[in-house]
Amino acid sequence: MLFKTIKKQDFFDVFLPDTQCIGPKKVGTNTNGKPIYQFLPFSSFDEIDLDYDTTEYSAKTYFLPYKETLSSFSFKDNDWTQEIKYRTRPRVIIGLHPCDINGLIKLDKVFEKTLFPNPYYITRRQNTFVVGIDCKEPCDGGFCSSVGANTVTHGFDLFLTDIGDRYFVKIGSDRAFNALQKIKTSEITKKDNEIYLQIRNKFEGSFEKTVHVENLPNLLDIEFESDVWRKWGEKCLSCGACAMVCPTCYCYGVTEHISMDFNKSDKIKQLYSCNLNDFAQVAGGHNFRPEPATRLKYRYYHQHRGFVESFGQPMCVGCNRCGRVCLAGINPTDVISDLQREQKR
Amino acid sequence: MKKIMQSYDIRHETDMVEPLDFNRRSRLKDVDRCFKAEITNVIRLTDMEKLFQIRMVNDKDWERFTFLPGQFVMLELPGYGEIPISFSSSPSIRSTIELCIRKAGKVTQALHKAKRGAIVGLRGPFGTYFPMEPMKGNNILLIAGGLGLAPLRAPISFVIENRADFKEVHILYGAKDPSQLLFDYQYEEWHRIDDINLEVIVEQPDKSWIGPVGLITKLLDDIQITPDETYAIVCGPPIMFKFVCKRLSEMGVPMQRMFVSLERRMHCGVGKCCRCNIGSTYTCLDGPVFDFWTVMNLKEAI
């Protein structure tokens, strides 16, 4: 990894005005008077705030849109032709926190590094210049340090850490290295390293929420019939909001939409949630997971048991977005600690 | 002492005979592209099921479309949707494929109205298959309940075509009532083949039924097998193969030699949409054919 330092005011000159830029924009305030941020397109750096704590939605929507057309059929004389498009324009996303970048790394495993690579995801990922930035302090309920998602070493083009008047920059790709040729950068000194480590250590020591996930694959198997699932399942409204804001949830449904003149049909993919009632329902009406409790359990099972089996790490990045968005007050640290308490009893 | 382990020789692995297809990754990038295919015949099997004979519109596509018994295809009905369907025909027939489809949901209802000549899309084949090659030289039990005969017809055809490679062959089929029996016009043909034991049983007989009455497990009572030399393929509703496999276990057939085919909702077929997940096992990639040991270890599989 190459490291540099850049003066804060110099950094923003890197990006060309003709590329679409996306960053954390303040969109309102919540009932407690705290600002609400979202990743949105911007045209001037005054519009974004890199010191934001967290966004309501994750940045996955720019890689896995909530709705996208997989292919279109046009009909003519009892025949059809299929058209598939997956080209995208290059764009820049600025200000991703380690949780979002770790989320992308996990999505890469699913969509790029498997038997059937997904062209729709790959074009978006390859055409996006990712600029990450370290958090200043843990966000509300965040437990990224517990799942090893508080730091990143790959999966980005540039990664910034605020060290006072300058950014400590990790360069993650050759295109980022080339982009930095345009501005004044400095080599890192021993002092910079010390400041960087000091800031990181302080940050890592300031987590209020911690949870042990190492034992979860085993525990989830043993506690498959546990009452804990019924307890939390009864609260669950099966709304699927947790999956929508999650940086790593990727399951989807495909439906076909026919045009009013019957000449065209679009095959549309829409992100889904395993908490929705008909997720595992098959033709004929049988539902393999009819109760909210079994669906909620499946979500945890996939994140902390199944994904570990397939890829050696949990799918969860500990951002607690699902916990904050949940109307029923279900949050992952509480569910997991409850399960672990159950085991000790 | 009872023999608990059989010697395993990796040189007998069929995968090792041919070089692996290292190119497979790049070839499959356009995962949403359909093969264009035409319905050539529609055969009514029962009130609920029809058999569709389908061929490729471009003859060249056959070169890229080979399948094995137990695999499935995503059948696209443009404007309606896409459904996963197991192959019902022999993989050695290289001019047409047969799909047995029950009228169950939106897409299948539309499909049942489709006429000869309709153009559909095929994506696949996908999934695991019944390991027919390692089964050679052994007895084989082919057991189906209800619609389970649809996926089982592919391995049945394979076994009939390669009859000399197998020892005893038993085909056991059970249905609710005689009106629900699939492929009834073929029983006569299978029955006449020398040395294939075909038994059909129904739960609720009508007046003209002269065959045995009861559950499918009843047919196993009369069968004497050498468990060490027996493979079983069981297709049907989960409740049926649960009892059948339990029964076969009691008879001494190892669980890793019993194969079942699972049914799940699927929206992609390529291990992305998660709709077919059992725990985090993708039915479309790691299945639909599983050995019974794996099924026993999957939570909520049956």
Mean pLDDT figure of chain A: 89
Helix content of chain A: 25-40%
Q: What is the count of β-strands of chain B?
A: 14
Number of helical segments with 4 or more residues of chain B: 8
Supply the number of helical segments of chain A. 11
Class computed from helices, strands and strand pairing of chain A: alpha+beta
Strands across the major sheet of chain A, in which order? 3-2-6-7-8-9-1-10
Summarize the structure.
The complex is a heterodimer of chains A (345) and B (302). Chain A is α+β, with helices and mostly antiparallel strands and 345 residues long.
List keywords for this structure.
heterodimer, A: 345 residues, alpha+beta, 2 domains, eight-stranded mixed beta sheet, four-stranded antiparallel beta sheet, B: 302 residues, alpha/beta, Elongation Factor Tu (Ef-tu), domain 3, Rossmann fold, six-stranded antiparallel beta sheet, six-stranded mixed beta sheet, 14 strands, globular
What does the secondary structure layout of this molecule look like, with pairings?
The complex is a heterodimer of chains A (345) and B (302).
Chain A: E1 2-7, H1 8-11, E2 20-29, E3 35-42, E4 67-76, E5 79-83, E6 91-96, H2 98-111, H3 119-126, E7 128-133, E8 158-163, E9 166-171, H4 174-180, E10 186-187, H5 190-204, H6 216-222, H7 227-235, H8 241-245, E11 252-258, E12 264-271, H9 292-311, H10 321-325, H11 332-344
Parallel strand pairs in A: 2-6, 6-7, 7-8
Antiparallel strand pairs in A: 1-9, 1-10, 2-3, 4-5, 4-12, 8-9, 11-12
Chain B: H1 24-27, E1 35-44, E2 49-56, E3 72-77, E4 81-86, E5 97-102, H2 106-113, E6 119-126, H3 132-135, E7 139-145, H4 149-161, E8 169-175, H5 184-192, E9 196-202, H6 217-220, E10 230-235, H7 238-251, E11 258-261, E12 277-278, E13 281-282, E14 289-291, H8 292-297
Parallel strand pairs in B: 7-8, 7-10, 8-9, 10-11
Antiparallel strand pairs in B: 1-2, 1-6, 2-5, 3-4, 3-6, 11-14, 12-13
